[in-house]
Amino acid sequence: MRNDEVAGVLYEIADLLEMSEPEDRFRPIAYRRAARAIESLAEDIEEVAKRGTLEGIAGVGKAIAGKVKQYLAEGKVDALEKLHAEFPPGLIEVMRIRDVGPKTARRLYFELKITNLEELRAAAASGRLRKLKGFGEKTEQNILRGIQVAKQTQGRQLLGIALPIAERVLAHLRSNASVENATYAGSLRRMKETIGDIDLLVTTRDAGAVTRTFTSMPWVREVVMAGDTKSTVVIAEGLQVDLRVLEPSRWGAGLQYFTGNKDHNIKLRGMAQKRGLKLNEYGLFREGEPEELVAAGTEEEIYGALDLPYIEPELREDAGEIEAAIKRELPELVTLADIRGDLHDHTNLTDGVNTLEEMAAAARARGYAYLGISDHSPSLRVTGGLSEENLRIHVAHIRAYSARSPDVKLLAGTECDILADGTLDYPDDVLKDLDYVIASIHSNFRMSEEAMTKRVVRAMENPHMDILAHPTARKIGQREPISLDMKRILEVAAGTGTVLEVNAYPDRTDLSSAHAKLAKDAGVKLIIDTDSHSTEQLDYMRLGVGTARRGWLAKGDVVNTMSYEDILTFFR
Question: Is the domain 3-152 a CATH 3.40.50.720 member?
Fold first, then answer.
């Protein structure tokens, strides 16, 4: 499927249009809406184009459909080529730095002749940016921080992007080669929020055939090495993928070793040595002449031979999991099957792609008992936030649908902005009529820790606020977390009964796993939500569950494992 590729082209057109024609804000919005719709399609965009039904996609009109057709046929779009000719290619990176954006990148180019990221860094470091009207020392420091944030994730990919790629490669191997076991390992299996290289493991009776299949995949851009036990390729997305072929009898040992992390494995090896054993990627051995194989077939056998219960991959970070295992105090982690619904979801009434009915049907297809509809409040104008009157109409629509639905029930909510002074964007007489209220930060990100903490605390003290969404407001590789006294936030959340969200949207992963564990330890309830803006994004739930598991969360810690009746009662 080329959906993400085509969507990326439309996003780039939107960014360059905003740079080229700063006075026209509607065309970029139209291209971004179409891009979101295409990347969320379950069907291959090429098949839609062949049927001639591109204009049936939400937000795709005649002009955008024409550009999609041209790109699919020719690999280029004339309009995009024209925009590229207007500006140096390095400005694409410049405009994506926090506190820059397309309009500021345009000014930097025309007024200071800045054409790339390094020139921007040098200009900010030397104080040259202050020559521009509206720029000062604080702006320069913010831009330097933004560049540093972007560099921290260079060479890494978001979990939500790397995981589908790994699954695509594994599916190709299973379909085109004789493999027995096949899975991903490393930080991907531990569900870390960003991934470096993708590590894949297989067992097979024909290593040569598997290697040939792997190195000749249609997405391979470069073959770095090819061997019977290890092969490495770079794929079209720029990610390195390593494939290791294991002996079937050593599957468990290899899987445990290559899942890591390094510190977890070092501690296990130390435990093995104290028992006169040796642990490596080939198995657990009793030392002697000759060595005696103790365990290798499954991970459970490896841990069991060390007198440990099985430790879930997400916990293997040498963060107390081995000590908890020794004491038999490991939690029974929440699973995707435990999730009964999702309460952070947007429709096309604000910045979503799909209708309420389409979102409900997608929830039904996933076996959910309920779905919460939480469109934006009016202050977030870029999303088309709902006025009080339109929210009331929307709530009536939600409740009418829920009343006639025999299975999936809808909850009427809102994602309400926390304003700079900590008040909420709707008055209490509006909020009290909703089933639940999500509150979140979407503006004024640069407040001091004291001021920001006071702002969030005031919001949590509002009796109508139920959930604090993406609590640190970070965007990985794009925006730093806001400054919060997290200890104070957790104290207030515990006292007010405020639920903290583990937001599963790939570039948020917010709360982080570390903060989720702190919240659990503080007695705060959590919720795993996707922040979906389309039906397909409901699948992000598995990413959020992975983060929750890394945070040691059990089913009882997560409120959306409750039934529909119980979660309604809980929020009331």
Answer: no
